Amino acid sequence: xxxxxxxxxxxxxxxxxxxxxxxxxxxxxxxEPLHFGYSFHAVNSQFRDGGAADKLSKGVLGFxxxxxxxxxxxxxxxxxxxxxxxxxxxEITGVSTKIESLTIDFPLxxxxxxxxxxxxxxxxxxxxxxxxxxxxxxxFENNPVKNMRNILSYETGVxxxxxxxxxxxxxxxxxxxxxxxxxxxxLSPGYxxxxxxxxxxxxxxx
Length: 206
What we know:
The protein is mostly beta strands. The protein has helices at about 5-25, 135-140; strands at about 35-50, 55, 60-75, 75-80, 85, 100-115, 120-135, 150-165, 170-180, 195-205. It has one domain (about 25-205): Porin, CATH 2.40.160. Strands 1, 2, 3, 4, 5, 6, 7, 8, 9 and 10 form a 10-stranded antiparallel beta sheet that branches.
């Protein structure tokens, strides 16, 4: 066998192995019926004043950390459950201090994905989220305006799956709006109904 032939064979083998690795990059998570991951979130939290021509309050930056469970429905569709511990204070017009908030969020979303192009795949996500405010009693009582303890919201967003050699990284942008007024009118008399509006940037590691 000539040296030239040997080099050609080695190049073909290397190319074949590289192509195979590319196809399974991301740790093969897309082929699993159920897989897990974790997430980090930056949240810009606002109030929308329902009694003042939908005026938005100043945004306050918070952060969260979460766990992810992803159920594969089809090649291009998944159901995602992403419980998050969220530290996101809020600011309301006419109140000089921030309203402290610590919530556990339970979002359930439907993820619709494009076909994979190389090591990338775009997606859209939509769903609902239940949040439970677990701010400690002393802080809750000292807040100038009292939040509702239970909040139900709807969410929409877009993201990009990036397939690295051993895991998948997914940056995501999401908009969240509460279905209902989240100010406790009994404990905070004199305030208009206020709705929660969040802009969230997330990084998922799967």
